[in-house]
Amino acid sequence: MQESAANHIKDIGLMGDGFNSTPEMSKRNLIWVVAKMQVIVDRYPSWGDVVEIDTWFGGAPTMNGFAIHWLLRDANTGETLAQANSVWIMMNKNTRKLSRIPEEVRDEITPHIKDYRVWDDIKLSKLHDNEADSVQTGVIARWSDLDVNHHVNFAKYVGWILENSPIPILKSQELCDLSLEFRNECGVGDELKSLTRVVETDGHTECQHMLQFESGGEVMRGRTKWRPAKQTNAENLRSLT
Questions:
Q1: Looking at 8, 186, 207, 209, which residue is catalytic?
Q2: For 112, which DSSP code?
Q3: Has 149 been annotated as catalytic?
Q4: Of 107, 136, 152, 215, which sees the most CB atoms within 10 A?
Q5: Where is the sequence biased in composition, kind Polar residues (predicted)?
Q6: Catalytic residue among 151, 164, 207, 209
Q7: Does the predicted TM-score (pTM) go above 0.70?
Q8: Is 176 a catalytic residue?
């Protein structure tokens, strides 16, 4: 999805010197950082399936951000496989401080907004140590975890929270809804701990997650929703023998 968004920015002529930065952003040493993201999966593609991805800019629940939306479909049938929404804000790559969107940058992007409806904001709760069912310490950000903006890639955060999810859930269920809210950037050498709390809602399993520095500051809040996993082809064959 991230690659398709980058290709979109390039195709509409907004690729500046930096990774996904517009020309006006590059002049001001500004970079995009993801603030919030939600991915909802209707069906996982199978091996060999061809997937088509649509992406577009939209309104965001903050004046200092833009939304990027994705729709993943089966290229042959048109069936919707997944959809995702995200909010992106700006950071100065030298000071590492968040920045307001300059009017010159807003003028670059606004003509390309396809959906002016503001995406519903994600509200995720803070998780405390004494509320967690599982606490994993000693999570260390490595050099290989960093992206081109020299902070941990958001996909790595997903791996960290899934690693701290209960094994019975991972074995018997599949992830169908992922929501993330990023609170601080994380760099090489930072030590974190991962907290997970399991709750049951409307017949589905739901987990609350939080990544925080060992020193106590929040890095990310998360929520995962799970549904019973469908049998794989291998499991179907075993059931017949």
A1: 186
A2: G
A3: yes
A4: 152
A5: 230-241
A6: 151
A7: yes
A8: no
